[in-house]
Every structure is written in structure tokens, then in C-alpha cells.
Amino acid sequence: MINKAQYSFLIKQKAKELGFDFCGISEAGFLEEEAPRLENWLKANHQGKMQYMENHFDKRLDPRLLVDDAKSVVSLLFNYYPSQRLPEGVNDLKLSKYAYGTDYHFVVKEKLKAFLEYIQEEIGEVGGRVFVDSAPVMDKAWAKKGGLGWIGKNSNLINKKQGSFFFIAELILDLPLEPDGPVKDYCGTCTRCVEACPTDAIIEPYVVDGSKCISYYTIELKEAIPVEVQNKFENWFFGCDICQDVCPWNRFSKPHQEPQFNLHPDLANFTKNDWEEITEEVFQTIFRKSPLKRTKYVGLKRNIEFLK
User: Fold this and answer.
1) Which residues are documented as binding site?
2) Which residues bind [4Fe-4S] cluster 2 (predicted)?
3) Are 29 and 164 in the same domain?
4) Domains: count for the chain
5) I want to staple 180 with a disulfide (CB 3.0 to 4.6 A). Which of 147, 246, 268, 301 is the partner?
6) pLDDT at 1
7) Where in the sequence numbering do the catalytic residues fall?
8) Which residues are annotated as a binding site for tRNA?
């Protein structure tokens, strides 16, 4: 007899031990609510040049197509809010907080592998896969279903206790577990994120046109940044945190406890001039394991030049 409650408790305890801040469980099944939303979003071309968003439509909506006989989705939040922040004054070049340290794909994936191994050792033959923003999994939808927060007007998952500066990861398992229910939406009448977005990417509450987001322009877009958004980036050259920084729920953000996410020591004293004059050699040395590798040196230079 499978003891769902006991296994669920065991899994949540292990999540805490591995450094995950929150863990929620949902029953694996088709995401009915998300299907029409995703379809409309893609039809409106809000994905821009992110062609990968158009692929695997069915798999995005049903984890049972990713893991045979999937029964449960274990959603996990891993905090990346820094204790030491880069200066974000009017003249400073700004870097998204998630990119301060080592690329989260490396850090969180290691923890997930250890997690799955633990489950297999403790519980027995459990089939499953681990995901951290690396496959067609609608992580925010699953985190919401698992009661880890609600999806805010800026389309980020917001947790009532600690805001939104989290990486989201999943274990999709063929093990039946005790599901958690969703929580309510606490955005209320607040529209700070909508009003603060300098490129008007939040076209209406809860709908973000991905192709207008500063993060899209500075990370995803491989070609020249359109001239019409010149002078609208408020000095963000890699990613953007504006809609999170203005969110009242992020006053509850707490500094993370993961040394690998700490600000790279060489970055602490980087000036605007250092960024503007960065050489490929320095880039390769400092950002060897950083999310900034995604733009490559050429992309970083393009972004910094665009801000001049």
C-alpha cells in the first residue's frame, strides 16, 4: 500500500535539506486552464523570435508526455535574492540579480539529481525526470497548482512569504503523492509592475508580450535591437528586474544562502567604464560559468553599445 502522505512528507523534508525554500505537489495531468492561454499568446506572436516556445505544444501542457505514467509534479522554489547588490543608480549599468553568480542550471540541476537519487533510495523504484528551465515544462503553472504562490500581473510567480526572486524547478515522478491546493491571487488592485515597465511589455495585467521585454532584447534576441526601443532600457544590459523590484511583495525577499549565487568578486567593483571596455579575455575569465555566457561576448558588447 502506497502511503502518499508519508512519501509527500519525506519529499518535502528532503527539499528543505537540499536548500529549496518551498516545495509543493500537484497531480500530473493536462493543464486545461493554460491550454487556451498559451495558444492565444503564441497566435499573438508574443514569443517574438523565441521559436522554441512554439515547439512541443502538447508536452508543455501534459507532463505525462515527458515521463511515462507520470503521477505527480513536485515543484520547487530556490531563492536567488542577493545580500550584496550591484549599484543601480541613474548612471550605473544594470545586471539582473539572477546573473550575479554561477549559472543556476548547474547549481540547481545538481541538487535535483541528488533529490531523485534520494527518492529512489528511500522509496524504491520510482521513475522520473528533473527539470530546471530546460525542457517544455510550464513551471509557473505547476508551481501555482502546487500552492507555491500565484502568478502576478507581471506573469511571475509570487510567493506571499518571500516575493518572486526564485528559480523554479520540478521533479516529474511516476509516484502518486498527496497534492497541495493552489493559493489565491493577492495582487489586488495594484498595477505597479504594469506602470513601471519602460517598454510596455505588460500589455495588460497578467499578459506579457515577451517580444517587448528588456530581458528578451538583451538575452534572447540574437539580431540588432530595434531602434524604436532606444533610451527605454534604463541602463539594463542583461535581463531586467524592474517589474520585480517595484512589486510590494518583494519587500519580504530574504537573502539566499547559496554561496554559488553570490556576486562574483570581480564584479563588485566593476564601473560603467569597466563594462564598456570589457575585453573578450576578461569576459571569458569572469563569466565562464555565468548566465552571461548566453549572450556571448558579441551580444554583451551589442547590449552595452545600445545603451550609449
Assistant:
1) 60, 133, 154, 157, 168, 187, 190, 193, 197, 213, 215, 222, 240-241, 243, 247
2) 197, 213, 240, 243
3) yes
4) 2
5) 147
6) 52
7) 133
8) 222
